[in-house]
């Protein structure tokens, strides 16, 4: 059962476990943690020690907060697309389509396949398009040329 407002206010519990807060409203240490993570992910530095020195924070502060903060990516700003492909069940089309999508820097988020009918199946692939893959016409053409593919639809182009 949900707690009343008075029960929440008079307790040591947080109002919500997670908050969406503008970066500029947080203490600088949180932004520095994100800078260290960025340096490590980009490969510009090879160790936490090098990253914290470059950012100008202590290793202990980084380790204290590193698991408690992460960047929020606005899904509206991402290039999300859903592709529906109908292809022959006996073909290797799905694996070839996945290779096409991933080799071009797209992040595959979900794959859903329908039950086969008359030797064909529909597969829905949701992905976040990579920076270099904005030409949807060319992408549709590449997928259409995969052996066994009968139909390709882009739902949110």
How large is the radius of gyration?
23 Å
Per CATH, which architecture of the largest domain?
A: 2-Layer Sandwich
Distance between the termini: 43 Å
How can the largest sheet be summarized?
4 strands, antiparallel
Total DSSP E strands: 4
Question: On the 0-100 scale, what is the average pLDDT?
Answer: 88
Characterize the overall form.
flat
The percent of residues in helical segments reads: 25-40%
Number of discrete helical segments: 6
Strand content: 15-25%
The strands making up the biggest β-sheet line up spatially as 2-3-1-4
Number of domains: 2
Account of the 3D structure:
This protein has two domains: 19-73, no CATH class; 80-154, Alpha-Beta Plaits (2-Layer Sandwich), CATH 3.30.70.260. The protein has a four-stranded antiparallel beta sheet, with helices on one face. It has helices at 5-9, 28-42, 48-55, 59-65, 93-103, 136-144; strands at 80-88, 107-113, 120-128, 149-154. Helix 2 (28-42) crosses helix 3. It contains six helices and four strands. By secondary structure, the chain is of the alpha+beta class. 11% of the residues are buried. The radius of gyration is 23 Å and the shape is flat.
